[in-house]
């Protein structure tokens, strides 16, 4: 994807080892060398917690990027599940930074607020989605901060979201936000703003076919609307996958609150591959 300028020498060394099948009797195997490269890559990832605000709300963000990359690169917004801005979205930000992007996990609730119970999560998310003007203001404030980051090419911005966050990024794209691409994972598609001529972004939706929160009727309405405007989109439904299939904490939360939540490793991996393909197509 994006060239990692400061690691060219190291990667060339690894390629030589691969092609020659060499191993060092004293210093370890090729596998150990690869692990060292991965560790060096991880060490190059910088993270920072930031604050930003609208006229009425202060929010917490988390930015991750690879400081060894000299060139400016695309920025990716990540919107949290209905639980709020937590470690899960921060981990996804770091994964995207490892791919060469600058990623910002944003806060749609304000003050880093998190829900400890589904009733609170439903209340928090409902307040956002029922006031689209406030939601747009919060999303725009985050996007402007990301664009201003020294590592970001401000003309290349995408957004991804999980659950509630997926609905947010789809809604923001439908509202005409200046986004090149959006991806939604285990996301509702019955949105406050449905697809219309203001949509310019490429769109990816990855849902579980066994997710009871995403009804066939809502999917049919969404895809019909997308087709009517000839949108550039892809809708994927993973057989047997339930809600929150990308989150390793889904099983315990599902059991605790008696909800149909379940991690699905295969769907998680495949949907991440779909995201990488979308971003490569959009920015390369």
Automatic annotation (TrEMBL):
Acidic residues bias: start-end ranges: 28-42
Keyword Hydrolase: yes
Region span, Disordered: 21-46
Residue stretches making up the Dienelactone hydrolase domain: 61-282
Gene3D superfamilies tied to this protein: alpha/beta hydrolase
Pfam families per the UniProt record, alphabetical: DLH (PF01738)
Keywords: Hydrolase
InterPro entries per record: AB_hydrolase_fold, Dienelactn_hydro, FrsA_esterase
GO molecular function terms attached to this record: hydrolase activity
PANTHER family: DIENELACTONE HYDROLASE DOMAIN-CONTAINING PROTEIN, DIENELACTONE HYDROLASE DOMAIN-CONTAINING PROTEIN-RELATED
Record's protein name: Dienelactone hydrolase
Taxonomic source organism: Mangrovivirga cuniculi
């Amino acid at each position: 994807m994006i060239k990692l300028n400061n690691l060219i020498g190291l990667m060339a060394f690894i390629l030589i080892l691969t092609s020659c099948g060499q191993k060092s009797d004293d210093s370890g195997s090729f596998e150990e060398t690869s692990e060292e490269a991965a560790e060096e890559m991880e060490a190059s990832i910088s993270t920072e917690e930031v604050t930003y605000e609208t006229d009425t709300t202060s929010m917490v963000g988390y930015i991750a990027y690879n400081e060894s990359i000299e060139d400016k690169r695309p920025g990716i917004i990540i919107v949290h599940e209905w639980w709020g801005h937590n470690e899960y979205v921060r981990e996804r930000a770091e994964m995207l930074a490892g791919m060469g992007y600058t990623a910002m996990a944003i806060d749609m609730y304000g003050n880093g607020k998190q829900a400890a119970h589904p009733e609170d999560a439903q209340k928090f998310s409902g307040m956002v989605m029922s006031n689209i003007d406030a939601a747009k203001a919060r999303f725009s404030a985050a996007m402007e901060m990301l664009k201003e980051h020294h590592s970001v090419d401000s003309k290349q911005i995408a957004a991804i979201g999980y659950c509630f966050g997926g609905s947010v990024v789809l809604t923001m794209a439908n509202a005409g936000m200046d986004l090149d691409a959006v991806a939604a994972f285990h996301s509702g598609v019955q949105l406050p703003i449905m697809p219309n001529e203001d949509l310019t972004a490429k769109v990816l939706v990855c849902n579980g076919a066994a997710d009871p929160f995403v009804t066939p009727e809502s999917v049919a309405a969404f895809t019909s609307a997308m087709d009517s405007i000839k949108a550039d989109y892809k809708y994927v439904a993973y057989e047997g996958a339930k809600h929150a299939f990308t989150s390793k904490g889904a099983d315990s939360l599902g059991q605790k609150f008696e909800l149909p939540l379940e991690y699905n490793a295969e769907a998680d991996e495949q949907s991440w591959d779909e995201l990488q393909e979308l971003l490569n197509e959009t920015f390369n």
